[in-house]
Design goal:
Elements: H1 25-29, H2 52-57, H3 72-75, H4 80-101, H5 108-120, H6 128-139, H7 142-146, H8 152-164, H9 192-201, H10 210-227, H11 238-244, H12 250-281, H13 283-286, H14 294-302, H15 311-334, H16 337-345
Protein name: Terpene synthase N-terminal domain-containing protein
Cofactor: Mn(2+)
Domain Terpene synthase N-terminal: 68-225
Length: 346
Amino acid sequence: MCFGLRSFSYLPKSSHCLKTNLSFFPRLLHSHTFSWKPAKHDLFVVRSTKSNDDLESSRPLTQFSPSLWGDHFFSVSLDSAEFDELEREIKTTKPLVRDMLMSSHSSDKEKIRFIHLLVSMGISYHFDKDIQEILNHSFTKLEDIIDKENDLETISIMFEVFRLYGHKMSYDAFDRFRGKDGRFKESLATDVRGMLQLFQFAHLGTPSEDIMDEAMSFARNHLESWIGGNYWWQENIYLNYYEQEGGHNEILLKFAKLNFNFCQFHYIQELKTLTKWWKDLDLVSKLPYIRDRLVECHFASLGTYFEPQYSLGRIILAKIMMIVVVVDDTYDAYATLPEVTALTEC
């Protein structure tokens, strides 16, 4: 699939130019009703316009740094045999993970915590139907599940999981962690895992839920005081931390790593496809003022949907974003005011 600008005209055609009172004057020369007889004219003032040289001197001509990656992903070789092996191992391991999820020996609370683990590892999409079934059942008896539960991490996890899957769990469950003044208890600050989870779930609130803003501010203040501004949890993937935890599940960890490599294979293939499309357009040489930010656009598309089955959607979205970048840079980094006006009217 290939779409985008094949060429670009620096100067708009006459039919696209900004119309003024004077732009109709040439048409009068060809009119049969035009009279050469002396006539009385009213005095009027004509606004002067800039010459082409003046316009060129006012052109922004912003210089952007080149792409950090260049054509790197276009030259990356992918082993199809390795990809096939990943698929086979995923198909073999997936039923084992599903058995853990659907185990009849696990309580509703344990299943919800397991679902949260799947979400954190980026593998929950493999079990969407099973997860929906579990949560639909658990939500009907939510009050019993959270009754007498005073662990901040557990309540925060349950809130996050239910909200992620469309169940509006009430934030009233957090009243047990607030003092008489309505604020979160300072004693919670010693619960590191609970504070991390509190900060995470606070992003899932609605505009009318002020408690979410309070929770985010409370958690952020304490977390920042611990790490001294070094956001270490952003510098490594969740899998690394899970692997370091004592008593981690080896089968689950193996499946998560297989899935990570499987997704990575898809992303590299998408970047190869996008890089070829971008090279074929050759806009970097045709429009030297634009930013070459194709990889960044693809990375942004991953925030919309990261699952492998949405590969085509990511490619399309990255192309659209890159075209938007071209138009944006034309406005902000190259075009003069008359050109911008004409382009806007087109």
